[in-house]
TrEMBL record:
PANTHER family: FERRIC REDUCTASE, NADPH-DEPENDENT, NADPH-DEPENDENT FERRIC-CHELATE REDUCTASE. This is Siderophore-interacting protein. Residues 74-192 form the SIP-like Rossmann fold domain. Transmembrane segments: none annotated. Residues 10-66 form the Siderophore-interacting FAD-binding domain.
Length: 212
């Protein structure tokens, strides 16, 4: 695969990146969530495939990438994302112990996309509907005690649109003082970019979430 990338990238199969929503080891079943757009002209490669898929169709899988798991000893969990991150946040909430405390803040453009996610009683689930910038405002108003930050008891999962993720990183690291090592952060997508270009830009300055 690496050789194809270098010598003949045009021969690479079309691919899209998705979060593993759930894995059933006993029955070898994998769940992924795919959004199907109803508006004309909004179908992408994966959503178009999903509308035509039938039992028995074959696909090729690569990965998995990433390795986030909620820290079992964290005093406070902070999960931040948008519509693209919902499956990952949902899986993280389900993996947390019932005693977990913290926040899950998710941006969606339409109230109909605010799902009923299972979560520990001590996790406050907030849906930010409307302008994307509202997610940053919501995170800025979270009550995260500084003493918990100082003793590194805060564990953060932050993944969203690239430009917004950079702003969220600046707030969490520079303004809040949360240790970078205690934050899982990356962009899941970039406004105005198809996946292939977005993935390629991760190796360029524009695609870096951590400026240093």
């Amino acid at each position: 695969m690496d050789r194809l990338r270098i010598e003949a990238p045009e021969l690479l199969p079309a691919r899209r990146t998705y979060t593993v929503r759930r894995w059933d080891d006993a029955n070898e079943r994998l769940w992924i969530d795919v959004v199907v757009h109803n508006a004309p002209g909004q179908h992408g490669l994966a959503s178009d495939w999903a509308t035509r898929a039938h039992e028995g169709d074959q696909i090729a899988l690569m990965g998995a990438g990433g390795g986030y798991l909620p820290h079992p000893e964290a005093d406070l969990h902070v999960l931040v994302g948008d519509h693209a991150t919902v499956p990952a946040i949902a899986a993280a909430l389900e993996a947390m112990p019932s005693s977990a405390r913290g926040y899950a803040v998710i941006h969606v453009e339409d109230e109909a996309d605010a799902l009923a996610l299972a979560h520990p009683e001590g996790i406050s689930l907030e849906w930010v509907v409307g302008a994307r910038e509202g997610l940053l405002v919501a995170v800025e108003t979270l009550d995260i005690p500084h003493d918990i930050i100082e003793r590194r008891g805060v564990h953060v999962f932050c993944h969203a649109e690239r430009g917004l993720t950079k702003q969220l990183r600046a707030h969490l690291v520079r303004e809040r003082g949360i240790a970078r090592e205690d934050i899982s952060i990356s962009a899941y997508w970039a406004l105005g970019r198809v996946e292939d270009r977005f993935q390629a830009e991760k190796r360029e300055a524009i695609g870096r979430i951590d400026p240093d």
